[in-house]
Inverse folding.
């Protein structure tokens, strides 16, 4: 896999097969396929914690497994010059386009990338927290081209899907988290996947230190010890 500089390294947990789609199955199918018939430009948007980064990084990993070349960039931590040469890749994922929409240098760099990729086999995927039409791009031509993308709004998972996502994440870390324990966490923690996954990672460390399984009694004690209060 040809890898250009990354603003953030790909997380080993961000795989398409570990993404619980819920109401986002169409977005998962669109970004995950390697077919040439898929849209050249794909735009994912939604509130934080809905899985945008997971899908983008997972798509890059999937492209590599197919023998392709891909690059993932967190735009809030990248520079416009990092897009040089990306037009030759099979997949380019730009995560968090919101803060650079009003930046002239970024507009020029993304517009150049978009233009060059139209003549090649590669795909461009971008993400934002705001709806695409709400972003104030400096270049009208860039705005019109990106708004022509295939757009998917990501929806938050319901509690059953959140519990399943926690179980998958735990499994990939070598942990056994029963459905009862996963639902216990969903019912007692902030209901967004960023917070849930962050707490699960801390519970993983606590269970390792205590040599305890992630049973409900252990979860109750560990959450209280970490300041989440009695359940």
């Amino acid at each position: 896999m040809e890898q250009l500089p990354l603003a953030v390294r790909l997380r080993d947990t961000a795989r398409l097969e570990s993404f619980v789609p819920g109401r986002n199955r169409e977005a998962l199918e669109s970004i995950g396929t390697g077919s040439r018939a898929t849209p050249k430009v794909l735009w994912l948007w939604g509130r934080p914690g809905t899985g945008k980064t997971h899908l983008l990084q997972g798509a890059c990993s999937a492209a590599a497994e197919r023998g392709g070349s891909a690059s993932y960039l967190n735009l809030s931590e990248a520079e416009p010059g990092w897009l040089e040469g990306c037009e030759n890749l099979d997949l380019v994922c730009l995560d968090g386009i919101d803060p650079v929409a009003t930046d002239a240098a970024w507009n020029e760099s993304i517009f150049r990338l978009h233009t060059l990729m139209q003549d090649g086999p590669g795909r461009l995927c971008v993400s934002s927290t705001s709806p695409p039409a709400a972003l104030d791009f400096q270049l009208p031509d860039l705005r019109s081209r990106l708004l022509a993308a295939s757009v998917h709004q990501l929806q938050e998972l319901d509690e059953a899907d959140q519990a399943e996502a926690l179980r998958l994440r735990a499994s990939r870390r070598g942990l056994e988290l029963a459905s009862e324990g996963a639902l216990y966490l969903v019912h007692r923690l902030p209901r967004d996947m960023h917070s849930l996954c962050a707490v699960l990672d801390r519970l993983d460390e606590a269970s390792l230190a205590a040599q305890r399984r992630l049973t409900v009694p252990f979860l109750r004690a560990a959450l209280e010890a970490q300041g989440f209060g009695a359940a």
The radius of gyration is 19 Å. The domain at 16-153 is CATH 3.40.50.300 (Rossmann fold). The first helix runs from residue 25 to 32.
